[in-house]
Write a structure and sequence with these properties.
The chain is an alpha+beta fold. The chain has one helix and five strands.
């Protein structure tokens, strides 16, 4: 019985890990006062479920990496961070 409980708990943990996703995009503040995430990959604006998430307002207008769970067209934010800048140096054309 203990092994069955351990297997179920492990499966639930792995499912929770697998459900989170990361998107790169821009945080916007709509006219209604709600924040949205426009993904760079699809150009689609998604609603943000937890509008009171810390850092959301300060990143409005910024390109960010947002991690969370999506249900329909709504993302529940788990983490938000600025993407790292590329360290590649571009050579000027001669």
């Amino acid at each position: 019985m203990k092994s069955l409980i351990r297997i179920v708990m492990t499966g639930a943990f792995l499912t929770a890990i697998a459900s989170a996703a990361t998107w790169t995009g821009k945080i916007s503040d709509s006219m209604c006062g709600a924040h949205h995430m426009t993904t760079a990959e699809h150009g689609k604006a998604n609603k943000i479920d937890n509008q009171d998430y810390a850092g959301l307002a300060e990143h409005a207008g910024h390109m960010v990496k947002l991690t969370g769970d999506m249900t329909g067209d709504t993302i529940k934010v788990a983490n938000i961070e600025m993407p790292r800048k590329s360290s590649k140096k571009h050579k000027a054309a001669a």
